[in-house]
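Weekly modeling sync, notes
Attendees: S.R. (lead), two postdocs, one rotation student

Agenda item 3: backlog of single-chain predictions. S.R. asked that every request posted to the team notebook include the full sequence so nobody has to chase files. The rotation student volunteered to paste the first one in as an example of the format we agreed on. Action items at the bottom.

Example entry:
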Amino acid sequence: MGKSNSSSAFAAFLKRKGVELSAKRYGIDALGAMAQGLFASLLIGTIIGTVGDQLGVKAISDIGAFAKSATGPAMAAAIGYALSCPPLVLLSLIAVGQAANALGGAGGPLAVYIVVIVAAECGKLVFKETKVDIIVTPLVTIGVGVLFAMGCAPAIGAAASSVGEAIMWATNLQPLAMGILVSVLVGIALTLPISSAAICAALSLTGLAGGAAVAGCCAQMVGFAVMSFKENRWGGLFAQGIGTSMLQMGNIVKNPKIWIPPTLCAAITGPLATCVFKMEMNGAAVASGMGTCGLVGQIGVYTGWVNDVAAGLKSGITAFDWAGLILICFALPASLTFLFSIPFRKIGWIKENDLKLDL
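Predicted structure, as returned to the notebook:
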C-alpha cells in the first residue's frame, strides 16, 4: 500500500510540474520543435549565407553566419517551448543548447535534442520549489545540462559521425542499393513529424549519400505537391513543393496508401542520383535533408559544386550537372509520382479528397 501511495504521489508531483513521460512528447513534439529551431537558425542562415557568397556581399554573408551561430540556442529554446517550460527554465536552456551543440560536433543537433530534454525536465522539477528560485532554477537547469553535455555530447558526436561515415562509405561501395535505401528512408523521415534535416546534420551526411538523401526528400515534396494538385491547386503546390510534405501526414494516417507513389519515386531517383548523375551534396550536411524546402537542397548541391571548383576538385559546372539536378529534384519526382498515382486512383486506393489539405 505504501509503495502504491508513493508512486501515486510521485506521479502527481510530475503532473504538477508539467513533466510528461511519453513517446509523443519527446519523439514528436520535442523533435518537431527542434526542427523549427533548426529552420530558424542553421537553415535560413545557410540560405542567406549562400546568397551573400554568390553576390559577393559580405554584409549578407555575415547575417547568415550570425544566424548559423545561434543554432544550438535556437533548437534548445524550441524544444523547451514544446515541453511547456516556464520562462526561467526556457531562458536557461539557451546556454545548454550552445554547450551541447558546440561539444557535439557532427552530432550537435542530436546532442542538443538529448541534453536539452534532460535539462528542461530537471529545471521544471525544481522550479518554484525554493524561496531563491531565481538562483536555483537556472543553476540546476544550466548546471545539469552543461555537465551532461560535457559527459555525453562528444560521444554522441563521435557516434553520429561514425554512422554517417559508414553510410557514405557504403554508398560509395554500393551506390545502387544504398542509393535506394538512403533516398527512401530520408524521404520518409522528411514527411514524418521528425526532422530529416536534423538527422542528416547529426550524421554529417554528405557526398553521394547526401545526394541520395536530397533525391528522396524531393521525391516526397514535389511528388505530393503534383499528385495532390487536383485537390489543393496552386496553394498546395507551393505549400508542399517549397514548404514541406509533412502537411500530408494527417491524410497518410487516414490512408497510408497515398504514401506509396512518392516513395516508389524515391526508390528510382535515389539510385539515378548516385549511379548516373553522381550527384553529391558537398555543401552543408543539413541541406541533404531539406529537399526543395526553400530550395535549400539545391542550393547545397550548387554550393558544393562551387567549393569543389574552388578547391580544384572539379574542373567546372557542366550542363550534365544541371540536367541531373533538374531531373532528380523536379522533373522526375513530378512526373513519376503523378504516373504512379494514376492506377492507384483507378483501383480506389487513392480516393477523391484523400490528399485534400486545409489551406
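Discussion: group reviewed the output briefly. The chain has a mean pLDDT of 88.
Action items: rotation student to repeat for the remaining queue; S.R. to check formatting next week.
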